[in-house]
Task: structure prediction
Amino acid sequence: MRIISKPVDINADTRLLDEMTAPDRTIFLDIETTGLSAAKDRIYLIGCLYRQEGNRSWNLIQWFDQTGLEEKEVLSSFLIFSSSYDALVHYNGDRFDLPFIKERIAACGLEDTLSRMDSVDLYRILKPARRLLGLPDYRQQTVEAFLGTGRTEASAGKDLIKDYRQFIASQSPALFDRLTGHNEADLCGLACLSAVMVYAKLPSLPLQIRRAQANAYTDYDGTPGEELFLFFRTAIPLPAPIYAGADRCYIKIDGGEGILKVPLFTGELKYFYAGYKDYYFLPVEDMAIHKNLARYVEKSHRIQARPETCYTRRQGTYLPQWDLFRTPFFKRSYEDPAIYFELTDEYKKDRHFLSEYASYVLSHIMNP
Result:
């Protein structure tokens, strides 16, 4: 077995990760295997990245099976090293790396000490933000390219398996460098991927509203409409810009500056009362009133209300919502699934409310 240990130069924004785990008690993990089956295949390389010297510098350590027969030594040495740490950071490791390691630990007759450690899977953290990023896939190298980590190494996993087999036969230094270099690139990229946490956490981070502006427009078919623009700043600048939308709501964020566009509805909507059996509907007035008041109305001018007629009408300017973000809520008709709340003058002046609504719409765009 060969152990490689060296400092590495990484410029990674780990501030959100550091809120979850203690930096000096956290290691970044990536493994290389001879195949996808932990029952049939082996681990030939384990790499870890960790911080030292007051968390200001990074160090890489790798355990490499040089003969194809040293997996137990690799695992044993890694387990001794990891016993000093509390958290493992990885990318899709909950699905592959950790189950594979644990099965190989058992196969080698070693004690599993990894189960006591916290698992931080950056892939799982990123999943809720996939609609914001709009990437063709979410492999680590694809996300790295989006973030611009500067990675130039682009080896494919299946090619590395072939390279390792050739290395066992030849002990080629060039193949050794290629195999360990790919693992190092994965680990350095993994540290830089910590920055993607900001996308998943955007709805919970405060959005500072700078300005709100209503805009009237005419659609391509001549239909007039209105929309609300919210200009805001993010608490943490994004490492790469995004543009996304859902249900005619659109958001664009570049660095720390963002614009949210939301459709406005100006006109008449209906508020539907609960407990329709307690109401009468007045056809002439096109509204429902409670029976306590309806007793003053002639019987010929009132009928028992039904769920779809138990409403009062209201003119106003409204914003969309997809659950009860604000009450009372209004609808065009009883059957219409779209619901709204009124954009009152007080709301227009309330920056805290506008910030809260911007985060609410952002959450909907992420999970429509």
User: Anything to note?
Assistant: The first strand starts at residue 2 and ends at 8. The radius of gyration is 29 Å. The chain has a mean pLDDT of 94.
